[in-house]
Amino acid sequence: MESIPEVIPRANATPRANATPNANINYTIADLKQPEPFDIKLYEFDLYKDEEEVFFSCGYDELTMLYMSYSVRSLVQILNYYGINKKKIVKTEMIQVLVIFELDRNNTDLVLKRWRLWKNIEELSLEPYFKQFILFTV
Fold first, then answer.
1. What is the DSSP string of 50-94?
2. Position 39 pLDDT exceeds 60
3. Dist CA 43 CA 112 (whole Å)
């Protein structure tokens, strides 16, 4: 596995007498290991915020594989949340529609909101007290 170099300022560096204001900073390079890859879950997508855009770390194929493991009932719940008509379409078509919708940059806010809400529902359903109040299954 390749490591990522990181520049770390040295605390015990001594400044030179005739140096410019920034010349007294010394650096050493330390290697950091990259994190190990893990299974993709809907709520663990890495989101990288740029100045104006949100980039998803997964693409069309990864989302398609993720949604293939979902039941038709779960896919219908998601489509209903987005207000997408799901009449007379089979599971593979539902997945295609869902993936295209979620990867569209115009829908980013709605998609992130749904992911957050689904995560909250899942977390509440794991708590013994709140489990009795949650009728919605994720």
1. -SS-EEES--HHHHHHHHHTS-HHHHHHHHHHHT---TT--HHHH
2. no
3. 10
